[in-house]
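Entry 12.
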Amino acid sequence: MLYALHEAAYGSAAPLRLASEWARAFWTSPMNPAAATSFGRAFAAQAEMTAHFAGKYVRPPWRIEEALVDGRPVPVTSEVVLATPWLKLRSFRRDLAPAADAPTVLLVAPLSGHHSTLLRGTVRAFLKDFDVCVTEWANARDVPLFEGRFGFYDYAEAVEAALAALGGRAHVVAVCQPGPAVMAAAARAAEARSDNRPASLVLMGSPIDARLSPTVPTRLAQERPFTWFASNMIYTVPPPYPGVLRRVYPGFIQLASFISMNVEAHQEAHRRWFEHLVAGDGDSADKHRAFYEEYLSVLDLTEEFYLETVDIVFQRHLLARGELSLRGARVDLAALTDTGLMTVEGDGDDISGVGQTQAAHGLCPNIPDGLRALHVQEGVGHYGVFNGRRFGAEIYPRIRDFIGRCQAALSEG
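Predicted 3D structure (tokens):
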């Protein structure tokens, strides 16, 4: 019922959105003599912000047509190399001549509310040195019921399918939530001595052992009974979406949770946006607009994926306790012997606290010390672990060098 009410509220706001767009067009028109006044800019700013709050945001485009390689722009070709109802594996290939020998990086995006395009800056950084493939997860409301379920175990198998589609020993970077599932997929490939087992794993802000350094989200998951999440977070997709009647954890509820954790920061950001609009500071206003177009674009998770993640990762901690099984076979992290492991954390991360990700090192006893790296970045929170100025200047170079070290070891072996 809540989902249907949300859609009804959005529909009823259509006149407000339309009126706001008209008002903005009027107060920014060069034909309006008052448009250049502070009075006119204030009215235009208010109209734009009203339209912004009343709008609905869909997945933004990637907008990656070129990459900077050795300081010069190089065209980038994008294509989908694997497509299932739940996953599209998108390849970003740099058009270099002759073909570069740089390895491929598989960037596993989180399935935790936002679209994979939230990693646009991350992809751009890696394209400086690597070809990149990134996982694009489906919005559960867009997947018909006849396509079946998609849970935690299906997610891990989708990662395995992505590795198989790439072929060879790719370098895998798991951003935030997918860490446990990616480790499980890598361990299964290593145990089978698959030719597609990862050459390296880079885990960034991942809840490998959520018992450590509890944060607000992990405390919530541990303090509430499992039945509370099933009863309060799951709703039915209404028409006209293709996934009508599918049970989901709606994106709009996730977004409300994200915002509630930093209400004052969002309020301050919007206050500054209004001031930039009134002052005519187009560059600053455009940056704010671009960020929130991405931040407010959310997707639904299937009931089974959300609840299984709560149960497996945040309540029973199965991977950290060595008790996780995939399709009846126990995940043996000791099988990882020639896969490099790097963990990256932010000292201000309020979602995956410091220690939760680096716990992966203790769970993988047979990885040589020469194929390990641990980094805790000062001055960044959860988002800053994989995006922003410090990611580009301080975190990414360490990841690049680590992947290079693992690739060299692979070539020598």
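Annotation: The first strand starts at residue 66 and ends at 69. Residues 389-412 form the longest helix (24 residues).
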